[in-house]
Design brief:
Distance between the termini: 57 Å
CATH architecture of the largest domain: 3-Layer(aba) Sandwich
CATH topology of the largest domain: Rossmann fold
Radius of gyration: 28 Å
CATH superfamily of the largest domain: Glycogen Phosphorylase B
Number of helices: 23
Structural class: alpha/beta
Strand order of the largest sheet: 2-1-3-4-5-6
Number of domains: 3
Length: 484
């Protein structure tokens, strides 16, 4: 009996699938629940594009042995070959339930999500595979994740430069996810300290020195020209350094690259006509959003819950928020305002509740203080509101949009380079129009994924750090950026 199966498997290997099917069909008449024979039958049927027969064989195996991994994978591939994507994903998810701690199953599910056109779910699955695998299969899964993300394969990197990312304590909130994303491609380490002398200790061993923020720390390190000689020196400017004229004090003679988070800040910087060395490259790299963490959540059309998420200070113009909400509340009785963030000025802590009380709106506004889980807090909010007089980009706004909040963004200088006109308001009449006829929640989320996915940011940084495309085999950065 076993000889029949072995002969059929030999026929499959030699491409004689019809003969294999004939042998296996006869065998299964006498032993219909033989798992090995059913598996071979399914494989031969699949190779002959007889997907219905293949599906039947694989499903029978899973009835007999629900944890049979190869049958589960083969069923998914058979369903996918027929274009039955949703059923394929149901089968993959069902298989995962039987082995939730198996990294290979998560990696396979990732490839199925990718094939089915669900890249966000694919990234979540491959991240889980990497987490579970540890060192085992790490390189293979990193390559899979890169393929899903459209990034170069880490295994094809010709060299990994040593990168020291230097940042003053308390201002490192933008760097850690970047370090995580770049680490497969370069030996990057973040150094966070309160004193420049501590940060300078990381410079000798680095080929690339990345100075985060154009502040006093960067001023002190750029002054150490001898220590920086021969290195690639990147200075990243965010916002306040330009407006508060801190960049005017920087000696850029050692800098090879200056990076801005938006075109508006770059243009303001260039208008200063500061002395920048010939050959120093100027870049704009937008902050990226983790669209896996801030995943889209469907909303009902009738709800009017408005989210305001920010540190509450004059920079965010919170009294404009108060007057704007009063304007909307009069026209939309169901509107509710949700304010999350710490007060950074006692005047607003006193003045905002006072305004709401005097306007008769105290029962329609909720203060949450500091929140630690923004993605969860945003789940049941319908709009995200911004009244900032000026933003470099508005990461919190984009995170809320990625979650599916409709944007109500004040048209600050440079906003049109970052957002669609339909997402911006200038007057209260504009605001009413955006509130009543605003962007569809799914469209808001898709906009963020298309233009502000963190993988796009990673690709931009790789070009800056490596300096040329040829360090990656089989990857065209220009084509990648154009496709985005």
């Amino acid at each position: 009996m076993e000889g029949t199966i072995e002969r059929a498997e030999g026929l499959i290997k030699s491409g004689k699938n019809e003969d294999a099917l004939a042998a296996l069909s006869g065998f299964l008449e006498g032993d219909p629940d033989n798992v090995r024979a059913l598996m071979d039958l399914g494989v031969a049927s699949h190779k002959l594009n007889r997907h219905g027969e293949a599906e039947g064989a694989f499903r029978r195996i899973l009835e007999l042995e629900p944890a049979h991994r190869e049958a589960a994978k083969s069923l998914c591939l058979s369903l996918l070959a027929e274009g039955r994507k949703e059923e394929c994903l149901e089968a993959a998810e069902s298989a995962l339930k039987g082995c939730p701690e198996d990294h290979a199953s998560h990696a396979f599910a990732a490839s199925m999500y990718q094939a089915a056109g669900r890249p966000t779910d694919a990234r979540l699955a491959v991240d889980r595979a990497i987490e579970l695998a540890g060192i085992a299969n790490f390189d293979e899964y990193q390559d899979l994740r890169a393929a899903i993300s459209g990034l170069p394969r880490p295994s094809k990197v010709k060299y990994r430069p040593e990168v020291a990312l230097l940042c003053v304590s308390g201002m490192d909130n933008f760097i850690h996810e970047l370090v995580k994303g770049l680490s497969p491609y370069c030996a990057i380490k973040a150094h966070v300290a309160s004193q420049p002398a501590e940060l300078l200790k990381a410079v000798p061993g680095a080929g690339v020195v990345w100075l985060e923020w154009g502040n006093q720390m960067t001023q002190a390190i750029l002054a150490q020209k001898d220590r920086l000689r021969g290195k690639q020196v990147i200075v990243r400017i965010h916002n306040y350094e330009v407006h508060d004229n801190l960049v005017d004090r920087l000696d850029f003679s050692a800098a090879t690259d200056i990076v801005f988070v938006c075109p508006y800040l770059r243009d303001l910087f260039l208008q200063k006509n500061l002395k920048v060395p010939d050959g120093c490259r100027i870049h704009v790299v937008h902050n990226g959003i983790d669209i896996r963490r801030f995943r889209y959540v469907p909303r009902g059309d009738s709800r009017k819950h408005i989210a305001f998420l920010a540190y509450i200070s004059y920079k965010k113009d919170p009294m404009v928020l108060m007057h704007a909400f009063a304007f909307l509340a009069k026209r939309h009785p169901e509107a509710v305002l949700h304010i999350a963030g710490m007060f950074q000025d006692k005047r607003f802590e006193i003045g905002m509740p006072h305004f709401l009380k005097e306007s008769g709106l105290s029962d329609r506004a909720v203060f949450y203080g500091h929140i630690t889980n923004a993605d969860e807090w945003l789940t049941d909010k319908d709009y995200v509101f911004s009244s900032s007089l000026l933003e470099s980009q508005g990461v919190g706004i984009l995170e809320a949009m990625s979650r599916g909040c409709r944007p109500l963004i004040y048209n600050f200088p440079g906003a049109k380079d970052l957002y669609l006109r339909s997402q911006l308001w200038t007057t209260f009449d504009d605001l009413e129009d955006r509130f009543a006829n605003g962007q569809d929640p799914k469209d808001a989320s898709d906009f963020t994924a298309k233009f502000y996915d963190r993988n796009r940011e990673i690709a931009s940084w790789l070009r800056i750090i490596h300096g040329r495309e040829t360090v990656f085999e089989d990857f065209d950065f220009v084509a990648y950026q154009d496709a985005q």
